[in-house]
Amino acid sequence: MLHLHHCVSARSFRPLWMLEELQLPYQLHMLPFPPRALARSFLELNPLGTVPLLTQGDVRMTESAAMCQYLAATHPDAGLDVPPNDPAYGAYLNWLHMSDATLTFPQTLVLRYGRFEPAERQQPQVVVDYTRWFLARLRAVEAAVAQSEYLCAGRFTAADVAVGYALLLAQHLGLAPQFGPATQAYWQRLQARPGYQRAMAAQLRAAVEQGVPTTPAPDTRP
Ligand SMILES: N[C@@H](CCC(=O)N[C@@H](CS)C(=O)NCC(=O)O)C(=O)O
Q: For residues 168 and 17, what is the distance between their CA atoms, to the nearest angstrom?
């Protein structure tokens, strides 16, 4: 059985979306954000205190983009993987890594210094600079989806899930109106997917059932 520890709309949405695209059985363990402060017992499972945590037997993973790759590769018949013998393999890996290292990272600074820190520690200049950084890096997505419906391999893959989460986070930050036209259309296509919609519904249902708030606590730093 796959077990996913998740906070609403955190990076753990990536593997949740993958699980719903693949329609696999899984158990979703909801945590308040940040678990490090609000669910201390989680530190016994993941000393980093971060989500996602994905476990399956002896497999234990804490990186969301790697989970997308893992779930796609272990269920190749679903067609979300790009294997090493595919000419798009390099592009696929590049998008998977870019999704977190290049696209999500600057957004966490915007979140932290614009929203989560107490007022006296907020840094408006950091918010402006890293918003600009994110939007500049997003030009790579704009160029790719201006030419093709999906990022690589001419079809929807785990790379679209990983990068799609960066667009979801940007939407939460109010940045979606600044997406280029091709990125806007791509983001609409991703949100229209039944797998995306099932993942959204699953996290809200589980949050209510497990008594977890659907928004982060104020003054909590990522
Ligand atoms: N690179 C990791 C980052 C994991 C991460 O930092 N997750 C955030 C939520 S999006 C978290 O759990 N923050 C809580 C904390 O830092 O205490 C990934 O992609 O999964």
A: 12
